[in-house]
Amino acid sequence: MNWTAVKSIYLFEMTRFFRTITQSFISPVLSTSLYFVVFGAAIGSRIQEVEGVSYAAFIVPGLIMLSVITQSISNASFGIYFPKFIGTIFELLSAPVNFLEIVMGYVGAAATKALFIGVIILLTAFLFVDFEIQHPIAMVGFLVLTCISFALMGFIIGIWAGNFEQLQLVPLLIITPLVFLGGSFYSISMLPPVWQVISHFNPVVYLISGFRWSFFGTADVPIGLSLFAITGFTTLCLGVIWWIFKTGWRIRQ
Amino acid sequence: MPPIVEINALRKAYASGFEALKGVDLSIEEGEILALLGPNGAGKTTLISTVCGITTATSGAVSVGGHDTVRDFRAARSMIGLVPQEINLEPFEKVQNTVKFSRGLFGQTPDPALIEKILRQLSLWDKRDAQIRELSGGMKRRVLIAKALSHEPRVLFLDEPTAGVDVELRRDMWEIVAELKRDGVTIILTTHYIEEAEAIADRIGVIASGEILLVEDKDKLMARMGKKELEVQLSAPITAIPDSLASDALRLNEDGTALIYTYDTRSERTGITKLLAEVAAAGLTLRDVVTRQSSLEDIFVGLVHEGDAP
Description:
Chain A is mainly α. In chain A, 79% of the residues lie in helices and 0% in strands. Chain A has one domain. Chain A is globular and about 60 Å long. Chain A starts with a helix and ends in a 6-residue tail after the last helix. The model of chain A has no long low-confidence stretch (mean pLDDT 90). Chain B is α/β, with parallel strands linked by helices. Chain B has two domains: 5-223, Rossmann fold (3-Layer(aba) Sandwich); 227-293, Alpha-Beta Plaits, CATH 3.30.70. In chain B, helix 3 (95-105) packs parallel to helix 5. The radius of gyration of chain B is 25 Å and the shape is elongated. Chains A and B meet through helix 1 and helix 4 of A and helix 2 and helix 3 of B.
């Protein structure tokens, strides 16, 4: 393993993040605060408790997931698309690194940024709502796994994208609906039976459910299944990236 | 000593069906400067990209320092530095950060002293904390060279390093190349400036339509091309060269109206004065004198045209 290269890519990407640190933090903190004001304080006060948890607290895990998933994808897809766009990818392709090292550098950095933001949102949430985390270790585990798996997916999108429009398209058309309909703001059990069944085809449901379980001990799907889903998703993404580098799809002529 | 870069029967066909390389064989000796001359679209960049791992070959093999560039890509690529033709740089990054990044990417531990030496050598030290977008085109090209040198490569590929660069910077670039050669770096550069190949290369290769047409020592090539012809046109045709003039360098044209003398422009004595004196002494009357030089350009164009023929 060329660990020096992994570290170099990682730090180089993180520098980009720190260069734009204000906007990186302000926007998620602001939007989360707005969500809490609207859903937590204004509307939430009229909503009864969900599974024994106040509505404002109930949406905390969902809100964190919403931001973390969006951030992981956009960070990672931009991170690899940008070198492709400006041409600096030549250096990556001619360096003595294999696909795993490239992925660890780029995806690692993208996941770290998303994790930072996830933590910031969690801290912001404490300012607005009163809640406790029942399974802190599981919570961190889910958060980290989510960051990594969606950063992997973002990396694939970044390689696939041929222009900036496509780069925005997948997150906008696929990910945002999946996350919103994945139970960020409600429990799946609140839906009519038909939609409950349909929801089980949404992979994000398993993530949010598992993550919420680590907060409150209640879940829409068994925790084991959640863990299985996220592990499976991570493996799938890794497999696709392995194939991309093996065939040179969209990166090597 | 085995060649440091060995290219065997390298072929590259793109998905469109276009065959950019048609079985290239090339050996490059350690420490030499090889200039690859060729028109646009000859396959120069594809050749370099394939050696460096940016493009995958359709068939054939490349080894660098004895390491196969596919099977043993880590060892092979560690030895290679690449300066691409296009100025591909992160616009918002600082000069020294991007150079340090390149060193790390190639698996080398940080060496601030070396980075400083390289930046000074390329007159970039004063600009080390400038963002790349603030630099001029020539400076950006230097940054690309600094990046390529940051991991101390044994083989350096320069893909048209002086394309679109002003005369002064071009001379600077040659200076830098000469200095690298003194450090023992093997350099392969592509260019379509014949003047450039003449100025810095040890050997010259000519490539056209994906094929290497010729690889020769520059001096030999230059000797071939440094020849000049002096045509001494006579007032009255003669049937044979007078004995007093007989020499290997002199021949008579077909209709006997002119003597053609071949000489080397670079030798100290061209023998022209002597020839003209002897011609006068032999009682021949001159009508006119014409000189002709075969240039690298002529040979180059000739070769490329042969390459074009079906």
